[in-house]
Amino acid sequence: MKEEVVIRSLMALAQSVRLRVFRALVVAGPQGMTPGALTETLGVPATGLSFHLKELGRAGLVSQERQGRHLIYRASFDRMNGLLAYLSENCCQGQPCEVDAQGASCDC
After folding, report:
1. Please, what is the average pLDDT of the chain?
2. Domain of 52: which CATH number?
């Protein structure tokens, strides 16, 4: 993954509403969520939500699909996994590591 893509992704996630939206879409899984469901779940006004979804889309972190009259937004798991792989690429001096049960630290 190119550094500028990583920076764009991290910048998009470095805002509380966008981070909450992205996490909700991750939880929703491949079926995704409509903007109405996101608004209801997160308590974010629809006008603000639209802006945040566009920013996440520009960063490649979410995709949008029209199903009839509805828009469905989904987390881009490929981008998320690529970002995580980039961030942990040199973890533990290049050796495989296992995350402890609480996920708080690597066990190298």
Report:
1. 89
2. 1.10.10.10
- Extract the tokens encoding 104: 């708080």
- Residue 62: HSE in the Cβ half-sphere, 13 Å Cα cutoff: 33
Task: Write down the pLDDT at residue 102.
Answer: 59
Amino acid (1-letter code) at residue 18: R
User: Residue 74's domain spans which residues?
Assistant: 3-89
> What's the average model confidence in pLDDT over 19-31?
97
Domain presence at residue 106 = no
The dihedral formed by the CA atoms of 7, 53, 65 and 85, expressed in degrees to the nearest 10: 30
pLDDT band at 108 (very low <50, low <70, confident <90, very high): very low
DSSP helix/strand/coil, 20 = helix
